[in-house]
Amino acid sequence: MNVPQLIAAPTPPRETLAQGAIAYAEVRERVAPPGWDRWVQELGGGPFHCTGWARYRASSAHKQALFFAWYLPGSLHPVAVALGVDSSLPGPFRARSVEFDAPPATRLDARRLVGAVQRWMRSQRGVADAWLGSFDANQAWTGAVGSPTRIELRVTPAPEDELAGRMRTLARRSLRRARESGIEVDANSAELGGFVNLYGETLERLRRTKDVSTALGDRDIEVRRLTRLRQDGVARLFLACEHGTPVAGALFTVFARRAFYLSGGTNDAGRRTGAMTAVLHRAISEFSAAGFVCVNLGGVSAGAPLPSSPDHGLYAFKRGMGAVAHPCHDSRIVVRPARCRLVQGARDTRSAVLRLRANARLTLH
To answer: Do 157 and 192 belong to one domain?
Structure first.
């Protein structure tokens, strides 16, 4: 995937404080300012801005949450907020990388806010680059310039009959098959261990059939992290069972009447019975009835609409559920290219280790 890079100038230009211009940005580490989640809701944000998601993302090793808030002159309340995750490279070389899963929650043009991020990065020792993500975004950090880097599939909430009418013929057939097979869907399951097993099984199947490199890390650690996310009230698991045995599941993160599909898993029985269709239909219906404003079924690669793409099947499946494709634009800021190469090398090494572990599990089984 080609992600546009913004190479920061050696000396960032000084911002002109015209009427309505940003006066300053405040950045807090680890602990959110009081009232953060309320600000997120007031500014139209969603799951990827809230404190529950911050705790989940920072629960991995060598990571900490960063809370960015932008203010206008004389204002006591921010006009934009964003959540970053600071990842430190372990070892003797001090190198850090920042990830923003989503653009800021704001009613301003997000492009006006990037300069403050660049200046903060330059003021911090060891910060090499920042990934400006586009999860569940209403606008891009740097504007929708060039080809999209990914596509999200979103469903507009609606009454049950309208949701069913949007589904394509194959999806409706799959839903009937699930019902005839006796599939039952728990709309708020606590069985995260069973779900992680399904997710891991799915990743291994995709690795064998499509050479997908994503691998599940330590199962017990992931269960604990997801359990905390659910306890914080920002995760909801829809789990389908056949005769009491989990066969398919979908995990959503939820906040401020927005839902985003994080991951899903299904086994052979789930695929045979059409259980995942039943899971997603139940999720969309539940969120619609609860007054949600957006149900996001997650993202695929930018090339997914092409039949030759490995993601085409997933794209077609979610389109069949009535989802509409939305182009998304990720970008990247690089302020210290040499340290950035160190960070990228560490990422590549970690990916290789995860692939080796996945291969070892497959061999043992």
So the answer is: yes
Q: Which residues pair with 233 in a beta bridge?
A: none
State whether 203 and 272 are in the same domain. Answer: yes
Is pLDDT above 60 for 269? yes
209 and 248 in a single domain? The answer is: yes
pLDDT in tens, 29-58: 999 999 999 999 999 999 999 999 999 999
Range of the domain at 47: 5-149+329-364
The β-bridge relationship of strands 235-242 and 184-186 is: antiparallel
- What's the pLDDT tens digit per position in 316-338? 999 999 999 999 999 999 998 88
Q: Specify the DSSP class assigned to residue 68.
A: E
Query: Whose structure tokens read 């960070």?
Result: 343
* CA–CA gap between residue 140 and residue 184 (Å, rounded): 39
Residue carrying the six token digits 């079924």: 297
The residue-averaged pLDDT of 199-224 equals 84
85 and 102 together in one domain: yes
Q: Do 167 and 59 reside in the same domain of the chain?
A: no
The DSSP secondary structure of 27-63, one letter per residue, reads EEESSPPTTHHHHHHHTT--GGGSHHHHHHHTTSTTE
Question: How many domains does the chain fold into?
Answer: 2
State whether 103 and 121 are in the same domain.
Answer: yes
Question: Strands, E, within the chain: which ranges?
Answer: 5-7, 24-29, 63-71, 80-88, 96-100, 105-106, 127-132, 150-155, 184-186, 235-242, 245-255, 258-266, 294-301, 324-328, 331-334
Residues 140 and 154 grouped into a single domain: no
The predicted structure's pLDDT at residue 242:
96
Higher pLDDT, 21 or 15: 21
Q: Are 126 and 338 within 8 A, CB to CB?
A: no
Report the CATH number at residue 285: 3.40.630.30
Look up residue 353 and give its amino acid: V
One-letter amino acid at 58 equals A
Nearest Cα residue to 56 out of 65, 43, 68: 65
Q: Give the least confident one: 8-22, 152-166, 248-262, 300-314.
A: 8-22
